[in-house]
Amino acid sequence: MEPENATDLRLGGETTAQDTGLLADVEALRSAFPTAVLQTVQHRGSVWVYVPRSLIVEILRFLRDDARTAYRFFSECMCVDYLDVKTSAPLSGRADRFEITYNLVSIKDPRMGTGSGRRLFVKVTVPEQDAVVPSVTSVFPGAAFPEREIFDMFGIHFDGHPDLRRLLMADDWIGHPQRKDYPLGGERVQFPHGTYGPAVGERVVQHPGESFFGKTAGEVE
Amino acid sequence: MDPLRSAALTSQGVELDPIDESTLVLNMGPQHPSTHGVLRLVLELDGEVIVKVTPHIGYVHTGIEKEGEYQSYLKAVTITDRLDYVSAHINNLAYCLSVERLLGVEPPPRGQVLRVLLAEIQRMASHLVWLGTHALDIGAMTVFFYAFREREKLLDLTEMLSGVRLMPSWIIPGGLRGDIPPGWAERCKAVLDDLPARFDEYEALLDQNPIWCERTQGVGVITAEECYALGVSGPSLRACGVPYDIRKTEPYSGYEQFEFGVPVGEHGDVNDRYRVRMAELRQSREIAKQALERLPDGPVSIDDPKIVPPPRAELDRSMEAVIHHFKLWTEGFAPPPGEAYVPVESPKGELGFYIVSDGSSSPWRMHLRAPSFMNLQALSRMCEGRLVADVVAIIGSLDIVLGEIDR
Question: Does residue B95 have a pLDDT over 90?
Fold first, then answer.
């Protein structure tokens, strides 16, 4: 991640009117927070802006309240694990393992005359060793469920979240299933209260008279 | 309070004042007919008045997002059907639009218009499920039979096209699996022509019904500002007076060429959500009719055998088609690295797949922005200060599907 505020068009694609508006919004953000814009990625009509993790609450509050941007609709936030399990390091070109994307819409509200209808993706990167992100529930209460899901699935903690519990998995589940290094099969089956059943592979037993690979029932002694 | 009971309640996300035990905690679900699936609600009550609702979800979590990371792009279409299982075509469409943006392709005009037609048929079928079950929850049983009668006719169209009623997987990256069969357009026209009179029937049963009005008017009120902050989209947001419809704000699949209105409500209550969806049924039928009339000739999919599987008949004649077919179903296609999110307007709200490609033939990450998931967060806000019986009406008006909430 470059420290200078360079606009990185590394994924290419021609700039459209939509992009111009989005880039103007990024400029408005930069004028309010000179250190906020780490990197801008533009790809096929969408713009992703990388911001520092520590400033995310203030940045989202600015984007929501400023009349130029008016990103008042919180669509969601989601996380990606970029761990390459073969090398045990993040995918090439990335400094941190996790990236959280906040999906915001400058919703057009004809009653107030605000909003531009644009959609901006704000990104923060999260290292594995220090997987804590300030919660944005104080700005957008709708972040409560998505942040709980990220906590559940990726094990990232959200500082200031009012009710950070597992959302989809059982309360006593161990591990974070959406992480790339979470086993996808052959693991022992987890039952309540920390007990485990056998893995599938451990249960291969031959029963007398049962047909199994390469033999019919009549061939088995 | 008994410390064990206190600890048990805290682990359920219910915070009780240990001294003042004036509130009562009531469990609702997960096996409750009005929760539309396996949703569990912990209601905190003061008398019969609701103080707080804590939803507990995850009962039908099947790891669809994780599974998507281990499928090729083409095979993952079938798991998208299972998310919002009453509007499968629209799930397929949302997924395919994101994959197509990664690939940088767009289907030919006939494919685009057919997609719109299928999406609107599916939207009507989904709204009819909502109408029937919502009315049934509130006690109007007749509407359920009427709505499901017409829904069956709409599903028959999908069955005639794809062979299945609910999980067609007919929309694939690059176009559709095939063209419409002979006689389908005429049958579709007959069904669409019949619908307006049926919509009038439903409204005749409900609109002036005093019980319906008592149960819905002024119930579950939410403001547009609260919806923005909570991420509530779709008819629930439009009922607050905001014409936020992805088909208008971020048009996809050629929706900008169709003439239709975006119905909005005024009060943001259960009754307005009902009216908005009823008006949407009529708009959907208009769009479907326009699509059927202007259906252009030509292919339905792009002419790129590296992305779209060859038709079955080709496999008997062409060795090249066999090779392409084999390569597509074993290896698949690999979009260039990048990220794409293309939202669509599903019957429930803003639906979109956030797909991250690392340049391989399966997604690095396939995330679903499920409208029901975000809409469910508004439940507590809508129920505050209402009675227990209103919870049933409010859940029905949110039109949630647990398949896409739990994924």
Answer: yes
